[in-house]
Design goal:
It contains one helix and ten strands. It is mainly β.
């Protein structure tokens, strides 16, 4: 896989990809967070293209914001927006940052 940042979301309550979830990517390297892009997951729980393409890859601090409350639409949802802040140390590497979530829990890891 080429450099850049990708993600996908799995709804572990349903055991299915989380289709239609909004995800925002912010550059956290500056004093104020800067929105790089905003997108929604497709029916496979993935974005249609890398959330940060290889030609824009760079080292720095980033944050993905997953809009889980809007996706689950339930009054007892635990988190409104799940922020995942991470460091890209090597701009030439691929960073895959998935989210597994339900209305009451979430988990992430650096995937491949």
């Amino acid at each position: 896989m080429a450099a850049g940042i990708t993600t996908h979301v799995l709804d572990i309550a349903k055991g299915l990809p989380a289709a239609g979830m909004q995800i925002d990517l912010f550059d956290m390297s500056a004093q104020l967070p800067t929105l790089i892009t905003s997108t929604k997951t497709n029916r496979d729980g993935r974005t249609d293209s890398p959330i940060l393409p290889a030609d824009q890859a760079r080292a720095g601090e980033f944050e993905l914001r997953f809009h889980v409350a809007d996706y689950f639409r339930t009054p007892d949802v635990f988190a409104d927006i799940v922020p995942v802040r991470f460091t890209v140390a090597e701009a030439t590497q691929h960073y895959h940052v998935p989210l597994l979530c339900s209305p009451w829990t979430f988990e992430t890891y650096r995937g491949s």
